[in-house]
From TrEMBL:
Native organism: Phaethon lepturus
Subcellular location(s) per record: Postsynaptic cell membrane; Presynaptic cell membrane
Job description of the protein: Auxiliary subunit of GABA-B receptors that determine the pharmacology and kinetics of the receptor response. Increases agonist potency and markedly alter the G-protein signaling of the receptors by accelerating onset and promoting desensitization.
Source superkingdom: Eukaryota
Name listed for the protein in its UniProt record: BTB/POZ domain-containing protein KCTD12
């Protein structure tokens, strides 16, 4: 038999819920897992939690739906199509219907005998669609920063020895950070942060600033501010070489 309180590890995100919640939709994948299968046959992680290899960020909405069969999403939710795919995987047909895009009668294909041919659309149509898409995006700030250091001789800057960027940190709203950086975002230092909360503990899996800037630009962000601070210390008592340590931040807004 299954315990009343169940711990789940979904794609690295930990959830704790009641057994009746997981079996509240007969015929769903979770219902099958926790009613039709032997408890010993289910996959577990190293801490004994039941493991499901799916999107841990989106599973919170699956679990919310399982509680009362209602769908409540944040404003300007950017992951609707991905959540629909998760609903299909967990075999929740009613949730799939709720997430399906709805075409109004006026805009549905076949209802308007005078539809414009795609090649005859106004030249401003693409710009209009872009503006509409941009206006639907969630506004906010993302700050990326890194620490660096280099050794500099007293008499010549040509001998400066620079270290590469070791880690690019990301600060901002969780949902924005995940939207922009996706799978390249390392959440290991703050794995259970809700999407509406803020964090300063994420960092990127790559170390190229230009790559981070490209991703931010592709998501519609532009830089609005930057700053840098530095401290200095002597490298050795026997030399005049100095070690400079700096921290630089770039602030982006959409």
């Amino acid at each position: 038999p299954f315990p009343e309180i169940i711990e789940l590890n979904v794609g690295g995100q930990v959830y704790i819920t009641r057994h009746p919640t997981l079996v509240s939709v007969p015929g769903s994948l979770l219902w099958e897992m926790f009613t039709q299968k032997n408890v010993r046959s289910l996959a577990r992680d190293s801490k004994g939690r039941f493991f499901v290899d799916r999107d841990g960020f989106l599973f919170r909405y699956i679990l919310d739906y399982m509680r009362d069969q209602q769908l409540v999403l944040p404003d300007h939710f950017p992951e609707r199509s991905r959540l629909q795919r998760e609903a299909e995987y967990f075999m929740l047909p009613e949730l799939v219907k709720m997430l399906a895009p709805k075409l109004s009668k006026q805009n549905s294909l076949g209802d308007d005998p005078c539809q414009s041919d795609p090649e005859e659309l106004s030249p401003n149509a693409d710009a209009t669609r872009s503006l509409t898409s941009a206006s639907a995006m969630l506004a906010g700030f993302i700050t990326s920063g890194y620490r660096g250091s280099y050794t500099l001789g007293r008499d010549s800057q040509t001998d400066a020895k620079f270290r590469r960027v070791a880690r690019i940190m990301v600060c901002g709203k969780t949902s924005l950070a995940k939207e922009v950086f996706g799978d390249t975002l390392n959440e290991s230092r703050d794995p259970d942060r809700p999407p509406e909360r803020y964090t300063s503990r994420y960092y990127l899996k790559f170390t190229f600033l230009e790559q981070a800037f490209d991703k931010l630009a592709d998501a519609g962000f532009h830089m609005v501010a930057c700053n840098s601070t530095g401290t200095c210390a002597f490298a050795h008592d026997q030399t005049d070489d100095r070690i400079w340590t700096s921290y630089t931040e770039y602030v982006f807004y959409r």
